[in-house]
Amino acid sequence: MSKAIGMIEFKTTATGITAADTMVKTSDVEIVEAQTVCPGKYIAIITGDLSAVKAAVDAAVTTYEDKCIDSFVLGNPHESLFPAMYGTTQVEGISALGILETYDAASIIEAADQAAKTAIVDVIELRIAKGMCGKSYMLLTGEVSAVEASIEKAKEFVAEKGMYLDSSVIAHPDKRMMDSLL
């Protein structure tokens, strides 16, 4: 039994709430976050045992397939994902800053997991479709070469799904700029 996280992203709030209800009724999972995001889409993030999360996400996607934008199940997600989603990551000393932006909500979490597992980096923020017209972004930090490798891996992953929008790596970002971000 391993821990997992799963997510659904739906075109409408009504279907999203109904699908989230289906997920918790299908399996023993906990809702981490469930809400309407820009532009009127609905996301639900759940956690639990891998098989339970998979069954819950599959049930929601299968039942409401016509309104599903995207979904995923991640077994053993990187430990930096949850603090990054909630803005509780503690950051000290930034050698490089990586930024990756996507067209959707679900792929940014998967991309962040890929990036964090590629090199020694810290995911410091995951902005999931809030105030961005449905787009999402992540910020990560580490040594310049590690950040470059992580952003490249995440970029490749998101591009395969057709959700890549933009990315950059800033070596030694100015403290004033970082203070405005964090």
Automatic annotation (TrEMBL):
<feature type="domain" description="BMC">
    <location>
        <begin position="4"/>
        <end position="86"/>
    </location>
</feature>
<protein>
    <submittedName>
        <fullName>BMC domain-containing protein</fullName>
    </submittedName>
</protein>
<dbReference type="Pfam" id="PF00936">
    <property type="entry name" value="BMC"/>
</dbReference>
<dbReference type="InterPro" id="IPR000249">
    <property type="entry name" value="BMC_dom"/>
</dbReference>
<dbReference type="InterPro" id="IPR044872">
    <property type="entry name" value="CcmK/CsoS1_BMC"/>
</dbReference>
<feature type="domain" description="BMC">
    <location>
        <begin position="96"/>
        <end position="182"/>
    </location>
</feature>
<comment type="similarity">
    <text>Belongs to the bacterial microcompartments protein family.</text>
</comment>
<dbReference type="InterPro" id="IPR037233">
    <property type="entry name" value="CcmK-like_sf"/>
</dbReference>
<keyword id="KW-1283">Bacterial microcompartment</keyword>
<dbReference type="InterPro" id="IPR011238">
    <property type="entry name" value="Micro_shell_prot_PduT"/>
</dbReference>
<dbReference type="InterPro" id="IPR050575">
    <property type="entry name" value="BMC_shell"/>
</dbReference>
